[in-house]
């Protein structure tokens, strides 16, 4: 079994965090995101499935 890895981790998916995460992913980095409200994080990941790490 192999572990999934990310290049960058981001905490907080408010407006600025979401745009920052998308910008980082657009530049080819694998990114992991965390948000205190799990449903917000799940919505973000579901809305952006093609991003590296998504």
Describe this structure in words.
- The chain is α+β, with helices and mostly antiparallel strands and 54 residues long.
- It has one domain (8-47).
- The protein is 41% helix and 15% strand.
- The chain has two helices and two strands; from the N terminus they run E-H-E-H.
- A two-stranded parallel ribbon has the order 1-2.
- Strand 1, helix 1 and strand 2 (31-34) form a beta-alpha-beta unit.
- It starts with 7 loop residues before the first strand and ends in a 7-residue tail after the last helix.
Keywords summarizing the entry:
single chain; 54 residues; alpha+beta; two-stranded parallel sheet; 2 helices; 41% helix; 15% strand; globular
What's the count of strands?
A: 2
Q: What ranges have pLDDT less than 50 throughout 5 or more consecutive residues? A: none
Strand-and-helix sequence, N→C? EHEH
Q: What number of domains?
A: 1
Radius of gyration, CA atoms, in whole angstroms? 11 Å
Helix content: 40-55%
Largest sheet: 2 strands, parallel
Structural class: alpha+beta
Question: Termini, distance in Å?
Answer: 19 Å
Shape: globular
Please indicate the percent range of residues in DSSP E strands (runs of 2 or more).
Answer: 5-15%
Strand order of the largest sheet: 1-2
Number of H/I helices:
2
Provide the residue-averaged pLDDT.
89
Q: Which helices and strands appear, and what pairs or packs with what?
A:
Layout: E1 8-11, H1 15-26, E2 31-34, H2 38-47
Quick structural gist:
The protein is an alpha+beta fold and 54 residues long. The chain has helices at residues 15-26, 38-47; strands spanning 8-11, 31-34. It has one domain.
